[in-house]
Specification:
Shape of chain B: globular
Oligomer: heterodimer
Number of helices of chain B: 9
CATH topology of the largest domain in chain B: Serine Threonine Protein Phosphatase 5, Tetratricopeptide repeat
Mean pLDDT of chain A: 76
Number of domains of chain B: 3
Strand order of the largest sheet of chain B: 6-5-4-1-7
Low-confidence stretches of chain A: 12-21, 127-149, 422-453
Number of strands of chain A: 32
Number of strands of chain B: 7
CATH architecture of the largest domain in chain A: Sandwich
Strand order of the largest sheet of chain A: 1-3-6-5-4
Distance between the termini of chain B: 30 Å
CATH architecture of the largest domain in chain B: Alpha Horseshoe
Radius of gyration of chain B: 23 Å
Structural class of chain A: alpha+beta
Structural class of chain B: alpha+beta
C-alpha cells in the first residue's frame, strides 16, 4: 500500500468522523447532594456528541462558591462508530449552612443552546470548617484553572512532574500539618499510576493518604492531568525537619512516532490517544524540603495539658439524669475542631469528690479524609459515692498554634440525680470493656482493702459448673416423670375406651366369639349349659331362664326358630335338674344346636 | 453394699483432704504468705468440686499479690456459683476499679440471680410444671371431665414453664458458658479480621470480658458486652467457666 492510498483512506475517515458522532446531549450532576460547610463537591457537565462547548466559567449562587476547574475528553470507538464525551468539572464550596438550588444555565454547542437542569444541594454545618480550613493548603480541593503559581517544573515543559505542598514552614511539635502531593501528567500522556505514593521519614509521622483526586489543570498553557493525594504530618521533635522526597510509580504511554511520512497528516486528526505510543515505567518525585519545628512553650502550660495541639471546642451531656443507688451515669464529652486527635488525652474531671470515676472510653469521628478535622467523644462512667445533684465539672487544655498560646476549656457541672451506691453495681461477667484505646493517662487506682477472711463462710451456692438443667439426676427425674405421665395417659385412655359404648361392644363380641368357639370343644355334659349361656349373652337376657324365655318370645324371630331356642333352654334344665341326669347330647344333636346358634348369630349380625 | 461403703469412705477422705488444704491456705493467708495461699487454694479446686467460697478466697489471695485480673476472674467464678455472694460482688467491683473496667447498669437477670437461688427456682418450676401436667391429665379422665381441674392444671403448667424459662435465661452457668476474660498483660486488641496487621477495632484492657463466638487457628471471633464484634488472639483469653 502506497503512502498516497493511506492518505486517501484517512481523508475519508476524517470526513466521515463528524457524522459518526452521536447526537448532542448535555447532562449535569453533582458528586453528592449533601455536603458540610467547607466540604467541596463537584458539579459535572457532561457533553456528548460534540468536540467542544462553551460553558460559564463561574456560577453565582449566594452561599456557594462555584468555579470551573477543568475539562476532560473521552473518545470511544465501537464497531467503527466513534463517540466523544466532554466533561466540564466545577468545584462547589459551600460557604454556610442551608438548602441551595444551583440554577439552570446555558451550554453552547456549535451554535445551539442547551439548558441544564437546576440542582439542589443540602449543606450542613457539621464540619465546623467555615470557608477555607485553616492550616490546609489552599488547593487541597481540585484547583481552579489556572491554579495560582505554576509549579516550577511546568515552566520547563516536562511531560510529568510532582510537587509537595505544605501550608506552613514553621510548625510546633505535635501540630498536625496537612500536606498535599500532586503528580502532574501532560494530557497527551496515557497510562496507569500507583495507588498510593511513598512518603515518610524520620522525625515526623504521616497520616494515611486520602484516595487520589484526579482533575485537569492548565499550567502555563499546557493541559495536565493531576493526581492529588492528601495527608497530614506531625513533627515529633523540635529542630529543623528534613522532609524527604515523595515518590509515585507510574507506567506511562508516551506519545510515539507516527508512520514515516505521515506525521503532519496525523497531527491534524482527532485520533484517539494511544494509537502510536511508547510504554515506559517512571517514578515521579517531589523535591525534598525543610521546615522548622518549634517546641511547645513552657510558659503558661497548664498542669493538666495532655498534648492536644490544634483548635478545639468542648460540649458535654449526661445520661441518664436520674439513677438509683450504685448505677452509673454516663458523662459524654465531645471535643471537636482541628488538630492532633490521636495524641489527645481525655478532659480532666474537676470537683469529682463523692464520685467514683473510671477511665473514659473514646471514639474519633473524622470529617475529612486525613483525620485533621473531626470530633472525639469521651464517655466517663461515674458512680456516686454520696448522693449527688451535679456531675463533676470538666477541664480541657490545648495548645493553639495559630496564637502560640495555651487555651483552657471548662465545662460547668451538669444537673443529675444520683443516689449513693452501697453494693457494687457490676454483675458477674457483665462489665463493659473499653471500646477504644485509652489515650488519656489514667492514674492507677489503689486496690481497695478486701474483706476479712470469715466472709467466705457466707458463700453457698452450687458446687457444680453444670446448671441443674444439665445434671444427670435432674434429667433422670424429669425423664421418669415424663414416662409416668405417658404411662398414665395410656392407662387412662384404655380405661376410658373400655367404658365407652364401642369398648363395651367390642368386649361383648369377644365374649360371644369365645362362647361360640367353646361349644365345639366343651365336654358333652356341659354342652347345653354353654349353649344356653351363649343364647343369654346373644339376647342380653341376663341369667334367668324365665326372663330369657320372655325375651325370646318378644323377638321377631320365626316361631319355629323361637321353638328351637326354647328347646335348647329346656334341654339345659333337663340335664341339670332331672333325676339321674339326662343323656348327653349326641353328635348330631350337638351339630343341630350349633346350627341353630349359628343362625341366631347370623340373624343378629344382620 | 461393699462398693457403696468404699465410695463413701473415699468421698469422706476427699472432703477431709480438701478441708486440710483449704485450712492450710487460710493459715498461709493469715500469715501474709499470699502466693503460697493462692497455690493451695488452686490445688484444692483441682481436686474437689468447685466452691464459691474457695474461689473467693483464691481471688482475695491473688489480689494481695497484685494480680487484679486473675483475682477478678476468680471473684466472677465465685459469683457464678453463688450470685448472691455479696462480698464477692464487692471484691469484683474493687478489682474492676483497679483494672479500669467501668461498671454497667444491672439488667433484670442480674437482679433475679441476686435474689433467688437458681437451682431452687428450677426445681420449683419443674415441680409446678409436672403438677400442672398431671392435673391436666386427670381432668380429662373418669369419673368425669373437670373444667376447674383443667384450668388449674393449665395455669400450673404455664407458670411452671415460665419459671423454668426464667431460670434457664438467668442462670449464669448457662448465660456465661461462652464468656471469657482477657488476662493478657496490657490487655489485647480486637481487630477487624484474623490478621496481625488488620484494623484495630477496640482495645480490651486486662480483665475485660468477651463472648466467644468461634475460633480460627490462634484467633477467637468474639463480641464485647457493648455489641462490637471482632477478632482477637487466643493467648491470655481464659474461659470464665473452667473447662471440664
Amino acid at each position: 500500500m502506497t503512502g498516497n492510498t493511506m492518505k486517501r483512506i484517512f481523508l475519508v475517515l476524517a470526513v466521515l468522523l463528524p457524522f459518526c458522532l452521536r447526537a448532542q446531549e448535555v447532562a449535569v450532576g453533582l458528586s453528592g447532594n449533601q455536603a458540610q460547610v467547607g466540604e467541596p463537591v463537584q458539579l459535572m457537565v457532561t457533553v456528548r456528541g460534540a468536540r467542544g462547548a462553551d460553558v460559564p466559567q463561574t456560577l453565582s449562587v449566594k452561599g456557594l462558591q462555584i468555579s470551573l476547574t477543568g475539562r476532560s475528553t473521552q473518545f470511544e470507538m465501537h464497531n467503527f462508530k466513534m463517540s466523544s464525551t466532554l466533561t466540564y468539572t466545577y468545584l462547589v464550596v459551600p460557604q454556610f449552612e442551608g438548602e441551595f438550588t444551583i440554577p439552570s444555565f446555558d451550554v453552547q454547542i456549535e451554535g445551539k443552546t442547551f439548558r441544564t437542569q437546576a440542582m439542589k444541594l443540602s449543606v450542613r454545618g457539621g464540619a465546623r470548617v467555615p470557608q477555607q480550613m485553616p492550616g490546609f493548603p489552599q488547593n487541597t480541593a481540585p484547583a481552579p484553572v489556572p491554579s495560582g503559581q505554576p509549579p516550577a517544573s511546568a515552566e520547563t515543559g516536562e511531560p510529568f512532574f510532582a510537587e509537595l505542598i505544605l501550608s506552613k514552614k514553621k510548625v510546633y511539635v505535635g501540630e498536625v500539618v496537612p500536606v498535599e502531593l500532586r503528580f502532574y501528567f501532560n494530557s497527551r500522556i496515557g497510562g496507569q499510576v500507583g495507588e498510593r505514593p511513598n512518603f515518610g521519614g524520620e522525625g515526623f509521622t504521616v497520616q494515611k493518604f486520602s484516595n487520589a483526586v484526579k482533575r485537569e489543570q492548565v499550567v502555563n498553557g499546557a493541559s495536565y492531568v493531576v493526581f492529588s493525594f492528601q495527608s497530614a504530618i506531625t513533627a515529633v521533635k523540635a529542630g529543623t525537619l528534613e522532609i524527604p522526597e515523595a515518590t509515585l510509580e507510574a507506567r506511562l504511554q508516551l506519545p510515539g512516532k507516527s508512520p514515516q511520512g505521515l506525521g503532519d497528516f496525523f497531527s491534524n486528526l482527532p485520533i484517539p490517544q494511544g494509537m502510536f505510543t511508547d510504554n515506559r515505567d517512571v517514578t515521579l518525585k517531589t523535591k525534598p524540603m525543610q521546615i522548622e519545628i518549634l517546641p511547645l512553650p513552657k510558659d503558661g502550660r497548664p498542669e493538666d495539658f495532655s498534648g492536644a495541639v490544634g483548635k478545639f471546642t468542648m460540649e458535654a451531656s449526661v445520661s441518664p439524669k436520674k439513677v438509683s443507688a450504685g448505677e452509673p451515669v454516663n458523662l459524654k464529652v465531645l471535643v471537636s475542631g482541628q488538630g492532633n486527635f490521636e495524641g489527645m488525652g481525655a478532659p480532666l474531671l474537676t470537683g469529682d469528690e463523692g464520685w467514683r470515676s473510671y477511665p473514659p472510653s473514646d471514639k474519633f469521628q473524622s470529617t475529612d479524609a486525613v483525620g485533621f478535622t473531626g470530633e472525639k467523644t469521651f464517655e466517663f462512667a461515674l458512680v456516686a459515692r454520696q448522693d449527688q445533684t451535679r456531675t463533676p465539672g470538666l477541664r480541657f487544655s490545648f495548645f493553639d498554634p495559630s496564637t502560640g498560646k495555651y487555651s483552657v476549656l471548662t465545662q460547668e457541672p451538669l444537673e443529675v440525680n444520683a443516689k449513693a451506691g452501697g453494693a457494687a453495681p457490676a454483675a458477674a461477667g457483665t462489665p463493659v470493656a473499653s471500646q477504644a484505646d485509652k489515650l488519656a493517662p489514667t492514674p492507677a487506682p489503689t486496690p481497695a482493702p478486701v474483706s476479712t477472711p470469715d466472709v467466705a463462710t457466707m458463700a453457698g451456692g452450687s458446687t457444680s459448673w453444670a446448671s441443674l438443667f444439665f445434671r444427670r439426676d435432674f434429667l433422670i427425674a424429669n425423664a421418669s416423670m415424663a414416662v409416668a405421665w405417658f404411662a398414665m395417659l395410656l392407662i387412662l385412655s384404655i380405661r376410658r375406651f373400655a367404658r365407652s359404648r364401642a369398648g363395651r361392644e367390642l368386649a361383648r363380641k369377644k365374649l360371644l366369639r369365645d362362647a361360640f368357639a367353646g361349644l365345639r370343644v366343651v365336654e358333652p355334659a356341659d354342652f347345653y349349659e354353654k349353649a344356653r349361656d351363649y343364647i343369654f349373652l346373644r339376647l342380653n337376657a341376663g341369667d334367668d331362664d324365665l326372663a330369657a324365655a320372655a325375651r325370646i318370645d318378644s323377638t321377631s324371630l320365626p316361631p319355629e326358630f323361637k321353638a328351637s331356642l326354647h328347646r335348647v333352654i329346656e334341654r339345659h334344665g333337663e340335664t341339670k335338674y332331672a333325676a339321674g341326669g339326662a343323656a348327653p347330647p349326641t353328635a348330631d344333636e350337638r351339630q343341630a344346636v350349633i346350627a341353630v346358634l349359628k343362625e341366631l348369630e347370623a340373624r343378629y349380625e344382620k | 453394699m461393699k462398693s457403696s461403703l468404699i465410695a463413701a469412705v473415699l468421698l469422706l477422705l476427699g472432703i477431709c483432704a480438701r478441708a486440710d488444704t483449704v485450712s492450710d491456705a487460710r493459715a498461709r493467708f493469715r500469715d501474709g504468705e499470699y502466693e503460697q495461699s493462692a497455690k493451695l487454694y488452686e490445688q484444692s479446686l483441682e481436686k474437689s468440686p468447685p466452691s464459691a467460697a474457695v474461689f473467693f478466697e483464691l481471688g482475695r489471695a491473688l489480689n494481695k499479690t497484685g494480680q487484679e485480673a486473675r483475682a477478678a476472674l476468680n471473684f466472677r467464678r465465685a459469683l457464678i456459683l453463688d450470685p448472691r455472694f455479696a462480698p464477692a460482688r464487692t471484691a469484683l467491683q474493687e478489682a474492676n476499679v483497679a483494672l479500669g473496667i467501668p461498671p454497667v447498669k444491672q439488667d433484670w437477670r442480674t437482679q433475679v440471680v441476686e435474689r433467688v437461688p437458681m437451682d431452687a427456682l428450677a426445681l420449683a418450676g419443674t415441680a409446678l410444671f409436672w403438677a400442672g401436667a398431671f392435673a391436666v391429665l386427670a381432668a380429662f379422665f373418669p369419673p368425669a371431665f373437670r373444667g376447674r381441674r383443667l384450668v388449674a392444671g393449665i395455669l400450673f403448667l404455664l407458670f411452671g414453664f415460665s419459671i423454668l424459662s426464667v431460670s434457664w435465661v438467668c442462670d449464669p452457668r448457662i448465660a456465661l458458658a461462652n464468656t471469657a476474660v482477657v488476662l493478657t498483660n496490657g490487655g489485647t486488641s480486637m481487630r477487624s479480621s484474623p490478621a496481625d496487621q488488620s484494623e484495630k477495632i477496640a482495645s480490651l484492657p486486662q480483665g475485660s470480658i468477651v463472648d466467644l463466638l468461634s475460633q480460627r487457628g490462634r484467633w477467637f471471633y468474639g463480641q464485647l458486652p457493648g455489641g462490637a464484634k471482632g477478632w482477637f488472639l487466643t493467648e491470655g483469653i481464659v474461659p470464665l467457666i473452667p473447662p471440664a
